[in-house]
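#onboarding

Welcome to the new folks! Below is a worked example of what a typical request in this channel looks like: someone posts a single protein sequence, and someone else replies with the predicted structure as tokens. Don't worry about understanding the tokens yet, we'll cover that in week two.

Example request:
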Amino acid sequence: MNGLTLVIVSVVLFLVAYATYGSWLAKKFGVDPTRKTPAHTMNDGVDYVPAKAPVLLGHHFSSIAGAGPIVGPIGAAIFGWIPVFLWIVIGSIFFGGVHDMGSMFTSVRHKGQSIGEVIGTTMGKRGKQLFSIFAWLTLILVIAAFANIVANTFVAVPEAASSSLMFIVLAIVFGYGVYRKGVSLGLGTVIGVALLIAAIYLGTIFPLVLSKNVWMVILLAYIFIASVTPVWILLQPRDYLNSFLLYAMLAGGVLGIVIMRPTLQLSGVTAFNVGGSYLFPMLFVTVACGAISGFHSLVGSGTTSKQLDNEKDIKVIGYGSMLIEGVLATLAIITAAFVTGGKLTELLANGGPVNVFSDGLGSFMTGFGVPFTVGKSFTALAISAFAMTTLDTATRLARFIFQEMFTSEKQTKETIFTNRYGATAITVILAGTLSFYGWASVWPLFGSANQLLAALALLALAVWLKKHNKSYGFVALPMIFMFSVTLVALVILITKSFGQPILLIFAIVLFLLALVLIKEAADALKTDTLPEVKPEQ
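Example response:
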């Protein structure tokens, strides 16, 4: 099989799905372009700030497209490229796209509040509390895992560290110029991208070499600051500019494949049982972000919904971003299928799936004249930039959810738990403590929690649609499948986790929490419909 064929098939299917199924979803949800969004009705200059569609698309895509859609498909390649590719396409169109778009839409209709708050309205206070606790713990795992990934990347590729720090300064200048000095977005983008390229070049000249522990401390301090500052200062401009890195990486990879037409060396299908890992359910849990990710629901209902300028943008930002991520996941499985044998083993042992992906794309880019080392370094830099974006976005989302858990209608003044500085400090301290246990200990917990979170978000969406007298079968089917996959995977994980207390306890808690929330949802579906939340005027 030729890698170019997979790219063409995936892109065509995604474009058709966007034009047809995406538009159908917009009608089923009831997207209304004339309705004011929370970014306008609740504009506070900090979290609720309207952003133009290209800027918000860059932020949202940058936040959800970290290392997940690369690590997952490459890790699942043990089952062969055919099942991985099929799940990427089917999952992105009918599972992940629906999940992301629906989570964003319901949040917008609930004043930009998180999925946990939506559950509180539709399933009651206990359902909200259980989901919020689960979501917050999941984000703690996200922060701990990605802090390790970023720190390890900066140690292995100090050029990426220098460039990333320059990105931060550049983003602040860009945000100040566009939002406070009236610089047009077009002119700012041209200058910003040019300076972004310069930052990459300067990073190769002035690599910053520090130990992992020092980077961990720096990163924890950075995410604290990033979480409490207004989104226009750092979050929006940084993610917007970083999105051009990912677009360039995707374009370079696709162009290289078009020119080189690499032949896939990996078997189409290997076996149902590979070393004790079964295709069902482990394929779906392993691919994770490449097809559907619970973390996306927290981004869509956490930061993105608070910045949405118009409801019509939900389709391109919510559904479109997931399809673009599907293209990235397709590139990932092509690199794994192209780089096989002893070289694949070596690359996995020295840098993991990200190293495999960087090596593969570096090879493809040589097809249009880019030196292999330059292509590989650029790819590594782009991935590290987006891992860092995921890190600071997860911290802000965790802060939102933590504040919501301790905020009540009767509250008259802030406490350490509802104050954004206190909520962020508690989150960062706990995540930082967990992060020093190392990536290998944290990642299995994150993977399980993330997929179960996707099932719970679909559950919340199905109940919301039922409560508002809308059909929900297109959400219920993916929800049932994801619960089946995740619960079976957790049972397997529990049986393999004896002797690892933290992993065992966490898996059991996740399993029980899912059962309780399923019961809460079943009870909620039996009650009458609820009136739709009206926007504030």
